[in-house]
Amino acid sequence: MMKSILTTTDLSEESCKGVKLAGALAEKLGASLTILAISEFTTSLHDEMLVPKTEQTEAYRRDAKAKMLQRLDGIRTELFGQRPNVRTELIDGRPAWKAITEYARREAFDTIVMATRGRHGLEKLMLGSTTERVVRHAHCPVLTVHA
Fold first, then answer.
1. Percent over 90 (pLDDT), the chain
2. What is the pTM of this model?
3. Could you name the CATH architecture of 4-146?
């Protein structure tokens, strides 16, 4: 029985297709729903770009996260109103697939629902597939939605 569903979004319109399906599934099953976004860029700002931590870079990081939170909360409100069993989470993590699978395991979700963009060829080779890696590494079933 599914009691808790995790869905992920990169805050794009395409990824919201997975969020919508997850919401419908959660409502039908009476499960809780968590909408998760990963702040990859703000994590990598210092770690991978070798940018020194300064007051200015930290202010930029805080501002970027605040904008992401605002968009995430907007998605929740737009799709689910004030439904009490729907919450949002924004976490730092890189790579995204690892942050998602670790969060899902730590919080003991029953199912993960994700949209996939259907990249092929060189684009997939160069960019990889977050959804594909989550499917391979998740501790629970992953439902994918073609966006």
1. 59
2. 0.86
3. 3-Layer(aba) Sandwich (3.40)
